[in-house]
From TrEMBL:
It comes from the Bacteria. It holds the Pfam family adh_short_C2. Residues 1-31 are annotated as: Disordered. InterPro entries: NAD(P)-bd_dom_sf (IPR036291), SDR_fam (IPR002347). GO terms for molecular function: oxidoreductase activity, acting on CH-OH group of donors. This is Dehydrogenase. Signal peptide: none annotated.
C-alpha cells in the first residue's frame, strides 16, 4: 500500500486532542444495544477520546452509566459526555491525574457517590512518545509514562476494590507492543508489558472474589495517541504495515471491551484479546 493512510498531521501535546484530528476517529457503535450492561455502572479512564470514547459510547448503548476520567482534554470530554447522553444514559466527567493516588481514590469515590455503585472498571488511560534512541530517554519522560500507564492502573484498581462486588469485571488496556516489542516506543512498550503482568496477576488474586480481570492489546488504532506522538510523515503512513494494510478504528476495539465486561465473557479471566489487524503474537 503506497498511498497515505491519513493526511500528514502532528500535535504538540500528549494526550492530544481528538477534535483536531483529520479525519476524525470513528467511535460509532455499529449495532443496536441489547442491554448487555443494563443497570451497570462503568468507570473508564482515558474516556474522553480514542478507544476510551468508543468504549464509553458503546457501554452507554448497552445500558451502562459511565464515569469518564481524563487528564485535561475538556473539549473532547464534553463531547463524549454528550454522546453518552445521546444514547439515553448518564455520564460523569472527572478530570485530573490518575497517576496521583489521592486523585485516583477521589475519582472512584465520586463515581460511587454519583451512581451508587461500581460494576465495571476499564483502565485505559495512557501516554506515549517516540523515544528512540534509548540513551536519550529522559528520567522525566520515563516517570511520566510510568505514572500514566502503570501507577494510574494500580491506584484506580486499589480504589475500586472496596466497591466491586462478585460478578464485577476489570478490563485493562495493554498493547501489541507488550508482546512483540517496539524499538521506537521502548518506554511505552515497557509500561504495557507491566500492564499485562498486572492484569494476569490480579486476575488470579481477584477471581476468588468473583471479579474477572482481562486485557485488550490493540494494534495500530487511529486515536489522538498518533498525531500526539509521531511526526507528520509517520502519521501519514500509520497502520499500513499491518496485514490488513490499514489502521483500526476505535469502534473496532471497543467491542472487545464490551465482550470482556459483559456476561458474554463470563468464562474469560486472565486473558488478552488482540484487535491488531492480523499480527500474530503469543497469547
Amino acid at each position: 500500500m503506497t498511498e497515505h493512510a491519513f493526511p500528514p498531521q502532528h500535535q504538540d501535546s500528549m494526550p492530544a486532542d481528538e477534535h483536531e484530528m483529520t479525519p476524525a476517529p470513528d467511535y460509532t457503535p455499529r449495532f443496536p444495544g441489547v442491554g448487555k450492561l443494563k443497570d451497570k455502572v462503568a468507570f473508564v479512564s482515558g474516556g474522553d477520546s480514542g478507544i476510551g470514547r468508543a468504549v464509553s459510547v458503546l457501554f452507554a448503548r448497552e445500558g451502562a452509566k459511565v464515569a469518564i476520567a481524563y487528564l485535561e482534554e475538556h473539549e473532547d470530554a464534553e463531547e463524549t459526555k454528550r454522546l453518552v447522553e445521546a444514547e439515553g444514559s448518564e455520564a460523569l466527567l472527572i478530570p485530573g491525574d490518575l497517576g496521583q493516588r489521592a486523585h485516583a481514590f477521589d475519582a472512584i469515590a465520586r463515581t460511587v457517590e454519583r451512581f451508587g455503585k461500581l460494576d465495571v472498571l476499564v483502565n485505559n488511560c495512557a501516554q506515549q512518545w517516540v523515544d528512540d534512541p534509548l540513551e536519550d530517554l529522559s528520567e522525566e519522560r520515563l516517570r511520566r509514562t510510568m505514572d500514566s500507564n502503570v501507577m494510574a492502573q494500580v491506584f484506580v484498581t486499589q480504589a475500586a476494590l472496596a466497591h466491586l462486588k462478585e460478578g464485577a469485571a476489570i478490563v485493562n488496556t495493554t498493547s501489541v507492543n507488550a508482546f512483540k516489542g517496539n524499538d521506537s516506543l521502548i518506554a511505552y512498550s515497557t509500561t504495557r508489558g507491566a500492564t499485562l503482568a498486572f492484569s494476569r496477576s490480579i486476575a488470579k488474586a481477584l477471581i476468588k472474589r468473583g471479579i474477572r480481570v482481562n486485557a485488550v492489546a490493540p494494534g495500530p488504532i487511529w486515536t489522538p495517541f498518533i498525531p500526539g506522538s509521531m511526526d507528520a510523515e509517520t502519521v501519514a503512513g500509520f497502520g499500513t504495515q499491518t496485514e490488513m494494510g490499514r489502521a483500526g478504528q476505535p469502534w473496532e476495539v471497543a467491542t472487545a471491551y464490551l465482550f470482556l465486561a459483559s456476561e458474554d465473557g463470563s468464562y474469560f479471566n486472565g486473558q488478552t484479546l488482540h484487535p491488531n489487524g492480523g499480527t500474530i503474537v503469543g497469547a
